[in-house]
Inverse folding.
């Protein structure tokens, strides 16, 4: 039995080099996909986040909306309407979107983390309207559609926003006192109005504003794949640009990769795209040499 | 014209004795009723809160739910069911209640205040699940119904809670840095579950935990009235107890007055019940000698 | 009656935009003239200063000497002797000047402010010899008289000084703890000797050293006037220079305007020349859009 | 020559035990008599004060008025009028007294110390009206005259005060930043009016409020003497009381000794009465075993 | 392979409840025996200590001397002489003892820990003479020998000491800045002379002075055993006393157990006696439920 | 007798200008030679260091090894072997060297200083392995021997090191809390191994890293001498270079002077080479105008 225990201890020790390296650094984690919806994955995520915080890593969570937004809109009798991958977000829609993001999903994540957090550390939920955290303006429709090679529609896209600035002071005030900020991807406009913003982009902007050590995307894919569909473990910037220009990267991975590259440019050390369907995927990526998923570096 | 200006200045000066007195003190304001629903009253409220904070008063807002909860439940096709004045709150209902309180009303108030707050001060929205702010447990049904002289129903009341404790550290961390906490009356249970709690009671518990100078209830009535229906300006504890025992106080005023008396006992200096339908009612009550509404003192 | 109160509250609210703007900023006020000698104006001044401090503005007062110096010299049997507008200040004279400024006028202003200051804020009187606050040397007689187009007199001017440097640390130590420094325009020379310095110049040097938001001259005139004798509300730098070169500005206004321009150059945001004979003139200038007097800007 | 230097060094070293003992402690020094009027004694005093501060002792100076008050009153044509050793102080007199104390003597002492203080330490002059430092009320005439065994006069004594309280916060704010407070014995009444207070009593009240290690009276006598006129080196409380009751102590020494005993009672460790006519008398008393003068202990 | 990684992650997670519990607490570890002499056990010890510090536990190491003292004395030609289990420690001996403890063993442990410590945390070696850390006096020979039921010898025991006091401030100054103090069991007497003190006792005194959460003895035995020689997992105070009085506990375990009981009395939460020959024995005892060795509790 | 006392006081006062000048500055003192071995000189040194610290000077001591290393090596039966003035330091030798330096000499100096230090200030002994204070690598043998004009030997020099970097944070942490660091000239290599480093060089590197005001070498010579053997009181950089190039400086003085010049280059204000055989030589050099020994300046 002692042998078993010693084996356990050796594994604990194997994390030391990583703990040492990341002590006092900031990780921004984009939380979404199955990791946010399946109960056992949720628990595994919460414990990982708490463990990271206890070993001295400053963690900030940015979450997406998932299927709950559509479900709730449906209950409200609002039919989904998408344009170029974006949800048309009129006043009724933004109202429901914010309610679901800030009042339901956000608080559930907070409570989930606090279930494991002990008495020294707590999660606190924020929307971009709290403390004017995420300043936003209406999405530049023309630029957006053109970047996708699509025709720019006449129709108004509504309260879909883009990040104008991040008010890091509220985050610092909370992180100093060992709170874990959990952020809903709602931005605030000049008149206080709410904007729905892509959570991947919010995460990368928060990471840039905090000059984070790592930006981690928890997704439902294994990572970035090459032409042959093989997972790429480490992706350098130039190679990523090549893959994009060759059209190998497409769909939801495209904006993720673009924001990853932008984040690297702005001083974030590493971006990770990992499979949230694997238990403890964050710990695995951070605390083992092999890692899982794709790490993107300068 | 100069005379007019000097007249204005004299009025500004008339606030000095009150500013001097309340500098550095904490006011907990229960925000609800028309002051929360009518646009012009909302603006007047927001400006008052911001002004109080700028003159050195630490303000904490606790808001209720108002008609939005019932409206949203209806949209979800859930029929309201009340027992002894309490909404039966099963899992579906608490879900909607939290979403409306923390994700809709709370963020709207935050944005409203931030519209007037300038760059030194910001509102930050919190639910009782953030930072384990309001620890709660299921309402003691028996005690509750007996206290109202009603028969205790068999039926389960669901996720209706009562305050078990307040985690003031998160509030201090925010107030130190000049943030204005805006709190939704949701409590968190042992397993992280949400409870719907009466906002008046949440406000009085927050005031007690912060040893506030003032607890202010913004209501839709003028204040406490005597047997003849005349407004009572100042109400002493013993008189309040007498009015209660004589049955003069009833309806929604009864729990408000009870929590006011409990707050005084626990060290809160004064409780105010004022008419939120009057513009700038908070400033009037705080910064003029006459005041409006009823003040309750030891 | 409630209407009246609401009207009052609206006026209080009208100050919010200004409070918001000047929160945490520093105002240096040159105090003199009738505002310093007439009892009711004195009270109005003291209350204004206290109110400014309570709403978060860091106030520093620099006062002049007024008629008291001459009166006291007379009692001592010393006859006034002026040269080019400057009092000849031999050892006997500087002795009386310092005594009146630092021991009489200064302490009276301190007591006046403390009468209204409450328990969180206090005025503290300082002379330039305290903490080596205002380092001075003998006035450069030649430069001075030449700048006025006058012949340089043979006679010694005595202990008339000019500012060599300001030791801001003592001011910061006091302002951090919410004290209001009240400064007598006495400078200290290399050997510890006292110098009589023009209070307008002391005020502008203090404002420059503190990089003040505003430098306010309380005078006995309405403000700067144009060729036709009409009050100029806002005066830009170039226009001021033009008015000086055209000889429109003369007398005591000339050095005031010159030091105003020097202060703007050194980073002070705005200089105000206002009529201290109007009640609450400081509040009026600071907290209303119309203002009174002249504001001088880059 | 080296021998001479080594001899010097040995003397420097002889101060170490005292420096070690008093490091971080507070000394309140009542400054008056010849030490305040004779130039060479003044310099020796200033250097001693500065040296004490540099070796880590927190020094507070309280000064008296000396002959300058009478001289100035005379120049103003006011005749001195004494009652039971107290100057009758009507409005004209208090005006001159304050001016001389706070504006002349105080600032001269400040400048004197700053002449030797270097760039890390500065003296700052304060009157009891600054920061409401010394709260005072009119002297209790009846108690005073009775304590002296004199008949209580009908005549009004005017603005002669007694200490009601000391506002230590201003002193702490200054001492923390290495300033040396120099205090004029002027108290402030409820309406901001000035009171003339006996400097010995002000010194003992300041020492009590600061729980000083030492209260040192610089006088023009060698110290306390016994019946035979022999200097007493160390005087215990009981013996002091005996000497008073036996009438051995009289004149100006009587109130000094009484306030010394009161100070000991309130927690001051030792009171010293020393001869200010000896050069460096403070250093001698503090830094040598023999000392000079009388030390009074519990 | 992913399964293997997930398995690893689960083990990392299994430490979370313990990390959460001990975050911010102090552990004092007595380091000695094989864990100090065998290379691979040394490395395992160093990594454990560093890991504990990174997860927020304040670690203080007290080490013994081991065989090196005797070896070095031998090289110096000094023959060991023991009395009642104590080394007779004359001036020559204490000289060598201190040199070996503070200059050899201590610095080797420091370097060992720093090899694994990364750039945020460092070990710093101290003897009880540094900062007057461990005040000591000569061992009370009579009390000591009587407590062992031995005759008190005539012969002088020399520089063998007992702890008189611990100067915790130096430890706090270092621990605040994330240093790990490593302490040699040398005490300092009134004249600065060194004393050799039993390291077990030094450890328990340091633990008491710091009100440590845990005092851990790393030994060469499995733990405390009962009459039948079976390891006792958890030992309550009364049972420990019974075992002592029944003579079950003897030899080196006796003083260890006595100092354990004394430590519990003084507020230390738990004392652990564990087998340092097991790899990662500290981690095993602290981070697993089963633990190894004996824990002693009130 | 009073005259004698006054004379003493005047001497105390004569130190004021120097205390004023060096307040808050850092002095690094290389301690060695007779000052370290003769009892009465040791006491005089300890008192001087303590006095410097009490008057606000931050003192850091670096000591050498003196005859004790050879004596101890001899007892161990190790024969000294020197190459180009350097001790060949194999594993056995470095072991003894460290033990003597860090465990014997270092702790004796610490105890010596603490004997005089009082309760506000303490010495703490450190080796370069504590807190990774002095990072070192093996001496560049080739560069060393060539710089001396000697043939580079084949033989390995062993653990003789040179300074690679100084970790000032540990020193700051201790000095902030009024501790006096006493440093043994042992460096730490990449693998934690100890290196013997010339103490003069360690002292100059510590002085450079702390940007010290003074670097003081306590030696057994009077100072630097010119061609005629006359002591040079003040030596400018260019002159020093000339003396070196002309071969006037030789022996142990050569590396001392070289490190002095390097220290000046790196921002140290003055380097002093003084005769430690004179009592209180440090005080004499620092606190008198004449000084003793040689001061080297830019």
């Amino acid at each position: 039995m002692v042998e078993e225990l010693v084996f356990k201890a050796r594994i604990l020790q194997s994390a030391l080099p990583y703990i040492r390296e990341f002590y006092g650094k900031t990780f921004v984690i984009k939380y979404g996909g199955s990791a946010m919806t399946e109960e056992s994955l949720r628990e595994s995520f919460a414990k990982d986040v708490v463990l990271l915080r206890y070993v001295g890593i400053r963690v900030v969570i940015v979450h997406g909306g998932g299927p709950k937004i559509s479900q709730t809109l449906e209950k409200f009798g609002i039919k989904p309407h998408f344009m170029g991958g974006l949800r048309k977000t009129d006043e009724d829609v933004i109202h429901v979107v914010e309610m679901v993001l800030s009042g339901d999903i956000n608080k559930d994540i907070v409570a989930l983390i606090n279930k494991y957090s002990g008495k020294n550390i707590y999660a606190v939920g924020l929307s971009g309207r709290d403390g004017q955290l995420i300043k936003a303006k209406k999405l530049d429709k023309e630029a957006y559609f053109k970047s996708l090679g699509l025709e720019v529609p006449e129709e108004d896209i509504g309260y879909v926003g883009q990040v104008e600035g991040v008010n890091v002071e509220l985050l610092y005030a909370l992180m100093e006192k060992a709170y874990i900020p959990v952020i809903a991807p709602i931005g605030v406009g000049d008149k206080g109005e709410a904007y729905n913003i892509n959570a991947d982009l919010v995460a990368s902007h928060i990471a840039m504003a905090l000059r984070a050590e790592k930006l981690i995307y928890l997704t439902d894919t294994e990572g970035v794949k090459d032409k042959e569909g093989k997972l790429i473990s480490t992706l350098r910037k130039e190679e990523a640009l090549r893959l994009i220009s060759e059209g190998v990267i497409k769909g939801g991975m495209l904006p993720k990769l673009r924001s990853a590259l932008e984040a690297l440019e702005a001083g974030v050390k590493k971006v990770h795209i990992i499979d949230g369907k694997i238990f403890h995927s964050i710990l695995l990526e951070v605390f083992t040499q092999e890692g899982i998923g794709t790490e993107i570096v300068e």
The interface with chain D takes residues 1-2, 5-6, 8-16, 19-21, 23-24, 44, 47-48, 50-51, 54-56, 116-120, 278-280, 283-284, 287-288, 290, 292 of chain F (CB under 8 Å).
